[in-house]
Design brief:
305 residues; mainly alpha; Serine Threonine Protein Phosphatase 5, Tetratricopeptide repeat; 16 helices; 73% helix; 0% strand
């Protein structure tokens, strides 16, 4: 699902030209919004990480411009939530991790930038969920499970990406009590998504839970077992074609467990995936393979012999 730039330029010309007749202009904008909402702004099948890194901000700003005219367009709000979350992770947060030892201050600045992008993504996600449930954010702060009870399977994408953005905010903003206070909301969002469709994203929810279970302050035996079950289920749903379950399990599970051999094995398995055999997820696999290579380069720092 990629934005077609030729078509997009035509769309933008039409929008600019429609200066008379508010209703006609709004119809045109809605039509463009519907079309863009069906496109994947992260160019899932592309094989050039830098090209997509350069192109994605334009796509995101185009979506924001359209949202200014159609603020309750649920499809565009989902695209914005997903797009800003993915961009912040792949092109801001991960590169910050890679430069931390070389330039700590630059890494810190980039993480703060990622945090702002995640907050923007979360806010779009909440807006998307509120299109069918006005005042949802206030309801979630009182009773998140009850507030989300009316969401349906059609909302799973928004539930997942809003939870992903919110979880990243909490992770990067651990020194902020307000962010930590939102953990129950993030938990309710991802649990509701799991209740509605545990197969979403061919295992994406289960990959989320691998990291989530292992991020608890005191990792119980139950959390460890649940993480392993989520890993196995993610592999089943993805048929082993996605690098993300292997990378998540290696990083979130086997580093705390101090199992160097399994850590190495899972990352090498992720790197062995042929990205050209699964073109619809090629970009995601390339991003996770880059992270796998980085983790392997740090293996001697993660494990004490």
């Amino acid at each position: 699902m990629k934005i077609e730039f030729k078509r997009l330029s035509i769309y933008l010309t039409i929008v600019t030209a429609l200066t008379s007749g508010c209703s006609i202009k709004q119809i045109a904008v809605n039509s463009i919004a519907d079309s863009l909402a069906e496109k994947n702004i992260v160019y899932a099948s592309d094989n050039d990480l830098q090209l997509i890194a350069d192109a994605t901000p334009f796509a995101l700003k185009t979506i924001e411009s359209l949202l200014a005219s159609t603020p309750e367009h649920k499809g565009l709000l989902l695209s914005a939530t997903r797009g800003f979350t993915q961009y912040a992770y792949a092109y801001v947060q991960l590169p910050a991790d890679e430069i931390e030892q070389i330039d700590y201050e630059a890494a810190y600045r980039e993480r703060q930038r990622a945090l702002k992008l995640y907050i923007r993504a979360r806010d779009y996600g909440v807006r998307g969920l509120e299109t069918d449930n006005p005042g949802l954010i206030n309801k979630m702060r009182k009773d998140p499970e009850a507030a989300l009870a009316s969401t349906t399977r059609d909302d799973v994408g928004l539930l997942y990406w809003t939870a992903a953005a919110w979880g990243s905010i909490i992770s990067l903003g651990k020194d902020n009590a307000n962010h930590l206070a939102d953990i129950p909301i993030m938990h309710a969002l991802i649990n509701r998504a799991m209740e509605l469709d545990e197969t979403f994203g061919n295992g994406a929810l289960h990959v989320f839970f691998i990291s989530y279970e292992m991020s608890r302050r005191n990792i119980s035996e139950g959390a460890k077992e649940r993480a392993k079950k989520h890993f196995q289920r993610a592999l089943e749903l993805s048929n082993g074609t996605q690098a993300s379950p292997y990378v998540a399990m290696a990083e979130s599970y086997y580093i705390p467990m101090q199992d160097r051999e399994k850590f190495k094995l899972l990352l090498e398995t992720a790197l062995a995936i042929d990205v050209d055999e699964h073109k619809d997820i090629r970009l995601a696999n390339l991003i996770m393979q880059r992270h796998a290579s980085f983790l392997l380069s740090k293996i001697d720092e993660y494990f004490v012999e």
